[in-house]
Specification:
Helices cover 35% and strands 10% of the residues. By secondary structure, the chain is an alpha/beta fold. Strands 8-9-10-11-12 form a five-stranded parallel beta sheet. A hairpin with a 2-residue loop joins strand 3 (78-79) and strand 4. The longest helix has 16 residues, at 383-398. It is globular, with a radius of gyration of 23 Å. It binds zinc ion (ZN). Zinc ion binds next to loops.
Length: 402
């Protein structure tokens, strides 16, 4: 048995040399001494690319941007992955956000996690109403009341109330399918297509509130956290992100349940976040887009996936140019998740990916690529597609003009 620590030694620099005795490290035909040539711990490995290629700096997006996926506020209380309070934590003031937005040509941000009830109204007052056209807020389901026998009706009414308060859509976190249980934090997992949510989906359709839905997670999170896992370091840093084992459904089961919801609610618009939650398999995302006309996707926190398959990604943008929304998952002061920290640099990386044909650059403002050790390539989209992806497709979902 090799434990995790032991196998980390030997990954990277040592592995190749050790496998080929006599090459590289051997001096005077002597075998390398283990003490001289200790392997390097993967966490210490910070290779500097020797590749000399053109580097574009894209200070501002070529066209105004509507970032459909940000988290300006979050729940003040959660337990075992389930948010249990309407009260919000405020992560960034409008003033500090607007400074970055103005520098980077971001006309508006959608704050997906606005919560519900009175707290939702407060968020809308502080952002949407105080700075018209710059912020839009989405509501979230109230899982606290899940156990009440008339939950389906209560939740549908809560959507109507959120609409009256000024919420522009509904956000579903991965809580549904992976954390919410029959007794909220215990018992069987509640399925994504549980019929008790049907009135909520219908209410969103009737009120023309798009549903921004996150189901499942990167497919590597459903595989063992071992030497073969391409996101080993990330899962090692965040062991609670692994959905391998236990009573978790598979990625395929989660997506199948999600797709049944799309079929049952054809009048409801679903924006499936993170490239349809399957950026690793664009053929699958394309198949679903072809099948469900009420489905669109955003690209939030997945330029790492899109940019490592730039030719396939470019074709995907061309074919689905009317159904892909710009999003980042930006979280003010979210420094521990650099792929979604709200700052100038994050937006410049997204713009570089979309607007240039630069090669082999970092997909996140971080020393070590946080979602897997690879780099990305730009897709160099033409202006017509850029306009749609940056703004028009999201504006249509929100009923916003210009
Ligand atoms: Zn998000």
């Amino acid at each position: 048995m090799v434990n995790r620590r032991q196998w980390l030694y030997g990954v990277g620099l040592m592995a190749g040399a050790a496998a080929q005795p006599g090459i590289g490290f051997a001096k005077d035909n002597q075998a390398p001494q283990p003490s001289e040539h200790r392997g390097l711990d993967l966490s210490e490995f910070e290779p500097k690319s020797m590749l000399q290629v053109h580097e574009s700096r894209v200070e501002r997006a070529r066209f105004p941007v509507l970032d459909f996926h940000t988290h300006i506020t979050t729940s003040a209380k959660s337990e075992k992955g389930v948010d249990l309070a309407a009260e919000r934590k405020y992560l960034g003031t409008p003033e500090e956000l607007l400074a970055v937005m103005d520098r980077r040509n971001i006309r508006a941000m959608v704050n997906l996690t606005g919560g519900y009830e009175k707290s939702l109204g407060e968020v809308i007052g502080k952002y949407d109403r105080a700075f018209p056209g710059r912020f839009y807020t989405f509501a979230e389901p109230c899982y606290e009341r899940w156990k009440e026998p008339n939950y389906p009706q209560l939740q549908a009414q809560a959507i109507e109330q959120a609409h009256r308060q000024g919420a522009r859509g509904l956000k579903i976190l991965k809580t549904l399918g992976l954390y919410l249980r029959e007794n909220i934090t215990s018992g069987e997992l509640v399925k994504v297509d549980d019929p008790r949510f049907d009135p909520m989906w219908d209410a969103c359709g009737q009120l023309k509130m798009p549903v921004a839905i996150h189901v499942s997670d990167p497919v590597a999170f459903f595989a063992p956290t071992d030497r073969y896992n391409e996101r080993y370091e990330e899962l090692n840093n965040h062991p609670d992100w692994s959905f391998y084992g236990g009573d978790f459904p598979s990625n395929a089961e989660l997506l199948a349940a999600r797709n049944r919801v799309f079929t049952r609610h054809p009048k409801t618009q679903f924006v499936v976040l993170h490239v349809g939650n399957f950026g690793e398999n664009l053929a699958n995302v394309a198949e679903n887009l072809d099948r469900y006309s009420n489905m669109t996707v955003d690209i939030a926190a997945r330029i790492g996936e899109l940019g490592r398959q730039p030719r396939t990604a470019r074709k995907f943008f061309e074919k689905y140019q009317d159904r892909i929304l710009f999003g980042t998952d930006a979280t003010p002061h979210g420094d521990e998740v650099p792929q979604q920290v709200f700052n100038d640099q994050l937006y410049q990386i997204y713009y570089r990916f979309l607007e240039t044909d630069d090669e082999y650059f970092d997909y996140a403002p971080a020393k070590i690529p946080p979602q897997g050790r690879w780099r990305i390539y730009g897709v160099n989209l033409p202006e017509t597609i850029l306009r749609k992806v940056y703004f028009e497709n999201a504006a249509r979902q929100l009923g916003v003009t210009g």
